[in-house]
Design goal:
Radius of gyration: 23 Å
Shape: globular
Number of helices: 9
Strand content: under 5%
Number of strands: 2
Structural class: mainly alpha
Distance between the termini: 48 Å
Order of helices and strands: HHHHHEHEHHH
Strand order of the largest sheet: 1-2
Amino acid sequence: SSDLFLAWRTFSREAPVFPIGQIINGGCTTDLAADVIAAYDAPFPDDTFKAGARIFPSLVPASADDPARADQVEAWKVIGAFHRPWLCAFSDSDPITRGGEKAFLRSVPGAEGLEHVTIAGGGHFLQEDRGPELAQVMVDFIARVDDHAVARRRTRDHEAVLLERGHRTRLDYDHAVILAISRECVGRRHR
């Protein structure tokens, strides 16, 4: 919720002690091992190294008149023009970002028509709570995207042949391309 996020922003700026490893642990649904918490603390030997971590939450605009809003609007313009494959993988147990995938799925052209997941039991730091599951989601996504890329490359190769064979109208050409892709996909399933 936005109240939780505003509380987090205030804490990150004002807390006298800012224990990075414990903060990461608190954003998980599982307890991290002591050595993992120590690893998160390692880059920050004292508070002077934590300026970036402390200010980062304030870079997310919380209102229409927030100074960070203009940069956020520009970032969404770039994201909104991203046509390459885009994977949304969110957790179901993060009170801060729960439902946040909807904005990406609605705004990113590269997300359209692709499978997206909500991983059960993960918190804000999904990679810590459900690392192997998240990794498998990513591996599967890359494999699906690669299959589509191979089919597109083969379609471009077919394109030259189809034009040589007299498919002169757009409808003839589109129909021939659809048939070529279908044959490729069916053939791939039977290999």
